[in-house]
Design brief:
Elements lengths: L8 H10 L2 E6 L4 E6 L4 E6 L7 H11 L3 H9 L1
Antiparallel strand pairs: 1-2, 2-3
């Protein structure tokens, strides 16, 4: 298990809000589109109750333009 494992939807959303992301619209099924007006980037987040798989979280961060190190630093504050 890597450093990005064990995060849940609510934790991820809380941290993305710190980076300027806001809910944009509902997507297919339980997925949501979030947008940052500051960086003009979109990211898709699955809204599930279980822990987010590490690969999925890495893909979310890649879409958002956030490095894993910055994400983990923001998580601690």
């Amino acid at each position: 298990m890597g450093q990005l494992s064990g995060f849940r939807y609510r934790e991820i959303v809380r941290i993305l809000k710190q980076f300027g992301f806001a809910f944009y619209r509902q997507a297919a099924g339980s997925h949501e589109i979030w947008f940052s007006a500051k960086t003009r980037r979109f990211t898709t987040i699955p809204n599930h109750n279980s822990d987010m798989p590490e690969g999925t979280l890495r893909a979310i961060l890649r879409q958002a333009g956030i490095s894993p190190a910055d994400f983990l630093t923001a998580e601690k504050s």
